[in-house]
Specification:
This protein has one domain: OB fold (Dihydrolipoamide Acetyltransferase, E2P). Helix content is 6%, strand content 40%. Strands 1, 2, 3, 4, 5, 6, 7, 8 and 9 form a nine-stranded mixed β-sheet that branches. The radius of gyration is 19 Å and the shape is globular.
Length: 164
Amino acid sequence: MRKDYMVEDNLVIEGARIGFRNFAGKEGKFNPAGQRNFCVFLEPEDGANLEKIGWNIKWLDPREEGDVETPYLPVAVNYKNIPPNILLISGQGKNRLSEAEVDILDWAEIKNVDIVIKPYNWEVNGKRGVKAYVKSMYVTIIEDEFAEKYYDVPDSGDEIPFED
């Protein structure tokens, strides 16, 4: 791989807009089973600049006539070699999400995402590219009105109340 085609620096984005969430790695029309991923939406200028330096930027067609294409970066979530540091931020503090727990982000109501994305430069059969992986991610969720009120109430476990 030629040096001028390599992306070496991590990409740091505060206040990232994410979508197409599949932290569970569910099989779908565009996703093989087991591949956890999501996309980071970018401003057109940022997408064009990142594409120029080698990142794998995709472009969504405009929704309405007169709109511009929306760039996005597909990002993989892989726990195999070097697990990502993904933290869920709530009113009760921060909790690191394990591979078994990270799928809750598929349905969470998200307030903010700060993320560090690491590049993986690849070359196969003369083709080359850059795949984006989560290095660390801090996800602040929106909690409902009762989350703080019932935070200290202990879980009942498997016990069924009022059973004879």
